[in-house]
């Protein structure tokens, strides 16, 4: 669809904002919609087919826009234009209830009377389009792949690019406006020039594509129709806005901006006082209620009293008023004596534009990786192969059972209410199946339990040493802490909020914190660290954030400075981007306590860096630091609180977290608009690379090309320039001097280049929303965690993103490299970092946790059961007796199972049975009923 801010323009919206790239692009005037209200008659089968025709994907559970799910008489839909999904509860064919619900826990949040559902795609292959595609198969065979898909009625990414071939008469955005509408052209000359540039770029692109497809460039249709077509077919009124009047008599609005704030708000407040004395009405716009209270108090401290504005406040009269309206910038309109002051104008902190995130359910579900053929461990019978879920009738009653296949022909059918006895096997190699009823499983468990008891004694000593080490107990949250957290412009996801609470609780204990926070890129780890650092500084201590790359240090420095700008906190960065004098000043500030918070690279670990009163150390991506660095970290962390952030922890770190030696929090909630990245793994193909680059050029995006060898990276860049001459290609790697590297990265971020050929220097820290394609050359040389981190660098702004992981055609891959590429190709779901880390643990082995070889024991019983046995042995040595859960047997007359037409996805059914089996109280049962049965 056209990138307009509102896409309901043809129906009821009052305002749509679009750039010329979207406004003059050929579109398809599809205005269909589904309207559903309470008491309406709806056939669920017809509704499901309509949603499919609208481009919606049917899923087991709704988590993103453009998805729907059907469970018996309940239809969940996340409409393409909605902020929240809706649950349609049917009684027969009648809509009994409509309610919005939360993606995070699938529970209803508020009832609605009606829901409007608009298509997910601008173009859908109807009969007319199919007939056109059928003719194109003969007339223009170069596009056979696309024409075939349209003829078959398929929906595929990028199909809107073929609109000019498949629709009769194209439309542009103004064509959809009613006769009583208005079009406002902001600086029409610049719009015309930009439209000409776009047409020229598309013409150049057409020449390149024509060479690829072996056709005449003049025969290729154009998506952008030019400025002259913009208003050619509409009778709407037109207004123009110019920065300077181009002729006499043009109405002029005189406005002036507020001066930028650099650390001191007094100049802005002085201007407010002057405006009030001149009889102005001054409106202060705060981002939220908490910000409003803080701004009012801040202005009051400087002698300016502001009153909250109500619905009937007269803004034409002099005075200072306070409103809660997120506003980027304010202005002073002298002609009408009105001044609008945004929070940014007063504090200097910029607003973010990302949409607030909606939660996603736990991505690390117990049975996410369970498939038919997977290996599992039964607590009493040992290692088996999962044969799927079957429904069997016993004594006239139907039940669901999990079929487990043991050695030979032995089969075990586990009732669904005993599903908690089963664990997924992870141990490194293909395990040996147990024999049902045999003594081998009991012997294996006994052998592992004996070895575990030795390890447990060492763990207890380690745990007791940690618990008895004196540390600082930070105080409870202050009002400033609450204010800072209230300025977070996104809704905290449940797991993010839990991680924040866990970290604060750890900091308030008198023992040093050692917590590991695992979460994919973009899942909110930085906010957890920022709040912890702020808490430490407010208690009179220094905080240090250790990062692996200079680029990440710069990005974190900018983020922390913006968030902490309103507070008297000195935030500095220490990296190789600083001159010698600048670095010396930061080091001196750390030594004398003038620097409260520092973000730095390995430079922080230098011998000359001393802290006056370090209270918190945050380590971002611990796996990127070597042995010598970690020894220095140990000397820093002896009695300070340590918070470790990672997306894909190394196996040793992962194991320590799972075994309970280190506390661990997992963030599994993705941004609402972020889509899974389409990942391709295969042999290197110049044609695929050229098409990927040209696709990004067509949608005005950018691309990372990762080649992790500095010696020939310039040669690779030159070959890309020859392959796609119209692309602007830049090179970046860690051996460049600081100034050049910084300039290249900034230029790329500002859109001066289309392709950045780089090493894995972008693995951490690069946050560029316009980069939506990643190409990795010689991907077999990189680790699993590296590949996952690199892939997380694209698609961060909600656009469909692509990742191409190539290996040379003439190289035989090792088994481990093949497994790495296969794993990264399969694990494309958002929040899959935890599972990738578990797979890495499986591929590389758990290693030696405390110097004792354990890999054989882990392989014997599986990693999950091994960790449970370690935990139980530790608890026993510490004298902690675990509470025995009540044993509940479900035996009711009649059928007792979840029908397939209610929960069609087997993974979801297994998860539902697991949750039912884990119920230990009536409250937990009610909780499950509220989520899974009704809103």
Q: What is the compact description of this entry?
A:
This protein is an alpha/beta fold. 37% of the residues are buried.
Structural features, described:
By secondary structure, this protein is of the alpha/beta class. 35% of the residues lie in helices and 18% in strands. The protein contains 28 helices and 33 strands. A seven-stranded parallel β-sheet has the order 23-24-22-25-26-21-27, with helices on both faces. The chain has a six-stranded mixed β-sheet with strand order 2-3-4-5-6-7, with helices on one face. It has a six-stranded parallel β-sheet with strand order 28-33-32-29-31-30, sandwiched between helices.
User: What kind of assembly state do the chains in view correspond to?
Assistant: single chain
**What helical percentage do the residues reach?**
25-40%
Overall 3D shape: globular
* Main β sheet profile: 7 strands, parallel
What is the strand content?
A: 15-25%
For the secondary structure, the number of strands is 33
End-to-end C-alpha gap: 32 Å
Low-pLDDT windows of residues: 1-13, 352-366, 830-834, 841-854
Helical run tally: 28
Mean pLDDT: 77
Strand order of the largest sheet: 23-24-22-25-26-21-27
Topology:
Layout: H1 20-23, E1 34-37, H2 44-53, E2 57-58, E3 67-71, E4 74-78, E5 86-91, E6 94-101, E7 108-111, E8 114-117, H3 127-139, H4 144-151, H5 163-166, E9 182-186, H6 188-213, H7 227-230, E10 237-241, H8 266-277, E11 281-286, H9 289-301, E12 307-308, E13 319-324, E14 331-333, E15 338-342, H10 343-347, E16 375-378, E17 382-394, E18 397-405, E19 411-415, E20 422-424, H11 440-468, H12 479-486, H13 494-507, E21 514-519, H14 525-538, E22 542-546, H15 550-564, E23 571-574, H16 580-592, E24 597-600, E25 614-620, H17 627-636, E26 641-646, H18 651-658, E27 663-667, E28 678-683, H19 686-698, E29 702-706, H20 713-723, E30 729-732, H21 738-749, E31 755-758, E32 771-776, H22 784-791, E33 802-807, H23 815-826, H24 833-844, H25 855-861, H26 863-877, H27 906-917, H28 922-932
Parallel strand pairs: 2-3, 9-10, 11-13, 11-15, 12-13, 21-26, 21-27, 22-24, 22-25, 23-24, 25-26, 28-33, 29-31, 29-32, 30-31, 32-33
Antiparallel strand pairs: 1-8, 3-4, 4-5, 5-6, 6-7, 14-15, 16-17, 16-20, 17-18, 18-19
